[in-house]
């Protein structure tokens, strides 16, 4: 089985973009989650260098993860930055120690560039490169994540810069989860084609299947697909949402079954402190109530996104014990941050 380590670059709030709510650490973590799910459709064993967006391992430990877990491929996911807002495009780096890996990286960059350019109109292929330095008469990879990933079974070690978060068009592209899903699907397709892998057959009704990995929770899997924990548990007949095991197959319903509707009663997930990614922290009392969903679109009937997440408008407060309703909170909230109660 092909094993791949995905490295979401930087810490959670690192490298703010030119648009509100963009942070490289947050968006690349989300991309890594989507890519992991896409790779697993081809039977690939995909592991991430961190299980939570708040984790921030060192450069050496990120690279070493691929060596220690026996990965053949290491990919560090990034977005780029420049002093000029005009700078744009996809650039990438591979290890000078692994020159034969350039072909796969070239295919990945070509595909990502095509996906992004279709919507941005400015994205182009900046290059597939190595970057090195000299020490003691020897040549070494400049980037620590690449340098520390070389060893063991690793044959491919890459950094991919998915456009510039200092460019308004590319930053806007990366803020949209649907665009990140498109990139993830494209990258997974390239890797599967390169290694001659076929997608595993889905179960009935065109649903997807997710294989539980170490560090996964049902809440994390639900968030990845824009579902509530309650609905995902019900769909899979899981009696205890807190009890899933590595290797377990989780069925993911079709997209038209994944909506939170007006009138649903929802609850903020454990660990949530803002209404949407990049938003300001809310007052502690907010989590003491459930809420009735008031709207799922704006006045023009269009979906509402905040921090790259699809949002619904939370309305009346609902007392969890009595069911009594109080005043409306009227705050847009990410569907990934709430669970459906009823």
H and E string: EHEHEEHEEEHEHHEHHEEEEEEE
Name the beta content range: 25-35%
Strand order across the largest sheet: 2-1-3-8-4-5
Total strand segments? 16
User: What is the mean predicted local confidence, pLDDT?
Assistant: 90
Q: Enumerate the spans where pLDDT stays under 50 for 5 or more consecutive residues.
A: none
The oligomeric state is single chain
Largest sheet: 6 strands, mixed
Helix and strand composition category: alpha/beta
Number of helical stretches of at least 4 residues: 8
Percent helix: 25-40%
| Rg over alpha carbons | 21 Å
Shape: globular
Q: First CA to last CA: what distance?
A: 41 Å
Which features does this protein show?
342 residues, alpha/beta, six-stranded antiparallel sheet, six-stranded mixed sheet, 26% strand, 16 strands
Descriptive overview:
With 342 residues, the chain is α/β, with parallel strands linked by helices. It is 26% helix and 26% strand. It is built from eight helices and 16 strands. It has helices at residues 24-40, 59-68, 102-120, 144-147, 168-175, 177-194, 218-224, 229-235, and strands at 3-8, 45-48, 73-80, 90-94, 125-129, 132-135, 138-141, 156-164, 208-211, 249-252, 265-268, 290-295, 304-306, 309-318, 325-334, 338-340. The strands form four sheets. A six-stranded mixed beta sheet has the order 2-1-3-8-4-5, sandwiched between helices. Strand 14 (309-318) and strand 15 form a beta hairpin. Helix 3 runs antiparallel to helix 6 (177-194). It is globular and about 75 Å long. The two termini are 41 Å apart. The mean pLDDT is 90.
């Amino acid at each position: 089985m092909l094993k791949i380590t995905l490295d979401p670059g930087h810490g959670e709030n690192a490298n703010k973009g030119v648009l509100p709510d963009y942070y490289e650490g947050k968006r690349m973590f989300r991309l890594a989650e989507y890519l992991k799910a896409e790779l697993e459709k081809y039977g690939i064993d995909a592991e991430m260098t961190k299980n939570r967006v708040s984790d921030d391992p060192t450069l050496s430990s990120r690279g070493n993860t691929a060596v220690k877990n026996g990965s053949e491929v290491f990919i560090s996911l990034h977005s780029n930055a420049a002093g000029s807002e005009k700078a744009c495009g996809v650039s990438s780096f591979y290890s000078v120690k692994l020159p034969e890996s350039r072909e796969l990286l070239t295919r990945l960059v070509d595909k990502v560039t095509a996906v992004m350019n279709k919507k941005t109109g400015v994205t182009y292929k900046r290059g597939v490169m190595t970057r090195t330095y000299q020490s003691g008469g020897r040549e070494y990879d400049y980037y620590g994540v690449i340098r520390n990933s070389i060893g063991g079974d690793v044959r491919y070690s890459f950094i991919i810069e998915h456009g510039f978060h200092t460019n308004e068009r590319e930053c806007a592209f990366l803020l949209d989860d649907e665009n990140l899903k498109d990139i993830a699907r494209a990258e997974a397709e390239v890797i599967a084609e390169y290694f001659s892998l076929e997608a595993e057959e889905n179960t009935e009704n065109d649903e997807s299947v997710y294989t539980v990995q170490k560090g996964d929770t049902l809440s994390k899997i639900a968030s990845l697909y824009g579902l509530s924990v309650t609905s995902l548990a019900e769909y899979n007949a899981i009696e205890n949402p807190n009890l899933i095991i590595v290797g377990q197959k989780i069925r993911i319903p079709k997209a038209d079954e994944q909506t939170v509707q007006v009138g649903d009663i929802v609850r903020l997930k454990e660990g949530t402190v803002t209404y949407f990614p990049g938003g300001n922290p809310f007052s502690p009392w907010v989590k003491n109530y459930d809420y009735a969903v008031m709207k799922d679109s704006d006045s023009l009937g269009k979906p509402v996104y905040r921090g790259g997440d699809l949002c619904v408008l939370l309305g009346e407060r609902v007392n969890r014990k009595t069911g009594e309703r109080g005043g409306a909170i009227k705050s847009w909230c990410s569907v990934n941050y709430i669970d459906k109660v009823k």
